Amino acid sequence: MGLFAQVQAAPEGAEHLMAVIRYLLWTGDKAVHDSTGQVLHSVLDEQRAEELIRSDGEELIERGRQQGLAQGLSRGRAKGILRILTQPRTRPAHHRAAPR
After folding, report:
1. pLDDT tens, position by position, 32-67
2. Longest C-alpha distance within the chain, in Å?
3. Secondary structure (3-state) at 77
4. Distance CA 43, CA 1 (A)
5. First and final C-alpha spacing in the chain
6. Within a 13 Å sphere around the CA of 80, how many CA atoms are in the beta-carbon half?
7. Domain spans of the chain, in order of start
């Protein structure tokens, strides 16, 4: 916790602190998120800490939504291509032999 306070106190420290906290929130598990939130609340006022956590959370949700959309589109295209490639081939009517 002392390290975060030192980073914040340095010139441009708030920006550096936000970068570290964002990294921890993006890469950490629930325990890391909880600890990061506690540290964040200890070095920032309550409102600023909540705003930061909320904005980062919204960004993560949007990134996840975009990734999910891209994966869904890719899977849909792959299924469509597979369906086309595995359909039984039929000859067009003009290539069929005429009845005798």
Report:
1. 888 877 877 777 677 777 777 677 667 777 788 888
2. 95
3. helix
4. 8
5. 92
6. 6
7. 2-84
